Amino acid sequence: MSLNLQQLARVLELDYRGDAGLEINGVASPKSAQSGELCFIQDRNLLDDINASHCSVVILPAALAGELDDKSLLLSENPQYSFVQAIKALGIESTSDAAGSVHPSAVIADSASLGSGVTIGALVVIGDDVKVGAGTSIGAGSIIENAAVIGSQCLLHSRVTLGPSVILGDRCILHSGAVIGSDGFGLVMHQQRWEKMPQLGSVYIGDDVEIGANTTVDRGALDDTIIEQGCKLDNQIQVAHNVHIGAHTAIAACVGIAGSAIIGRHCKISGASVVLGHLTVADNVTITAMSLVTKDIRDPGVYSSGTPLLENSLWHRCNARYKSLDKLAQTVAKLDKTGK
Fold first, then answer.
1. Cβ–Cβ under 8 Å, residues 239 and 261
2. What is the pLDDT of residues 49-104, one digit of tens each?
3. What is the CATH class of 3-89?
4. Annotated catalytic residue within 157, 175, 190, 241
5. Phi, psi torsion values for 194, nearest 5 degrees
């Protein structure tokens, strides 16, 4: 599908500059773009790359419009967002060629309910009393266990597993290998042996949530694990039992959230960070990469822990000095008291 510059500007509700009839048939990065393709820049750091690019149209802030040569322009306050909308308008996103079909190898319980236009891939297993909303697509090899509920217009890629009674809202995307509703890590020590605590809750996921490949969300021990609407979870994240994640929070890869932690709304948790169990993180908190959260965060802001990368020999010297910090602190405290 292609649109001319004027048509695309109308769809995106943006002002444009250049040839109204210029055909746009694709999108690309500045480095790889060819004639007829669309790029975007957020700030002036990529101006040289755009000027050297073969792209025909650039989405950019109005303040930069006078700094480009021989390009047609779309003026946006948020170029990256407008670029995403342009991809949708041009019909570039991949879609299923078998919409509304059920593969003959799928195993679907008689008591399951499928809405209109549902697509079921090869070797999918759907258990008793499952409900699947209209327009949802379930990829090959996925398993939907008894009494799970999937909303409308969801996309489950191949090999997704939903445990019993998991509830998934509308327009959710689950990538390959995601496991939602596995048992939480609940154990009780008795007579020097571990006894498994039954995990009787489930998982509730709100609308417009995206969960990355091989991410695991455990079912609650008694109450449900909850991920509110609009959350975005990257690949290989562990969300333990009874965790509650507030709306529109984004979590990067390899984060671990221990049991019963509460994460606020509009938070950003960077890669490889860990939030310990039973802690509360306020709304609008950003946690930088590889941080360890060991106590409640009660106020919005940016929080960090850990040590940044150093050249190896310097790191070893600094590490050796860590052992002297307590003695140094005691010496300084003593000097403060004695004045000597």
1. no
2. 999 999 999 999 999 999 887 899 999 999 999 999 999 999 987 655 567 899 99
3. alpha beta
4. 241
5. -85, 130
Q: Looking at the predicted structure, is the pLDDT value of residue 276 above 60?
A: yes
Reduced to 3 states (helix: H, G, I; strand: E, B; else coil), residue 111 is coil
Would you list the DSSP string of 87-101? Answer: HHHTT-S---TTTT-
| Token reading at 280 | 């509360």
Q: Pairing state of beta strands 137-138 and 292-293?
A: unpaired
Question: Which one is the CATH code of 107-303: 3.40.640.10, 2.160.10.10, 2.40.128.50, 3.10.150.10?
Answer: 2.160.10.10
Domain residue spans in the chain? 3-89, 107-303, 311-340
Residue 187 backbone phi and psi in degrees, to 5: -135, 145
- Average pLDDT, rounded, for the chain: 95
- DSSP of 230-259, one letter per residue? T-EE-SS-EE-TT-EE-TT-EE-TT-EE-T
Residue type, 235: N
- Type of residue at 281: V
Which one-letter amino acid corresponds to residue 319?
Answer: N
Residue 141 pLDDT exceeds 70: yes
Q: Which residues contact 225 (CB under 8 A, 6 or more apart)?
A: 184, 201, 202, 203, 204, 217, 218, 219, 239, 240, 241, 242, 243, 244
Cα–Cα distances (Å) from 176 to 31, 101, 116, in that order, read: 30, 20, 24
Is 244 designated active site? no
Cα-flanking dihedrals φ and ψ of residue 44, to 5°? -75, -5
The arithmetic mean of pLDDT across residues 183-197, rounded, is: 95
pTM: 0.89
- pLDDT digit string (tens) for 321-335? 888 899 899 999 988
- Span 107-130, average pLDDT: 97
Helix 79-89 and helix 5-12, axial crossing angle in degrees, nearest 10: 110
Does residue 110 sit in helix, strand or coil? coil
The Cα 117–Cα 104 span in angstroms is 16
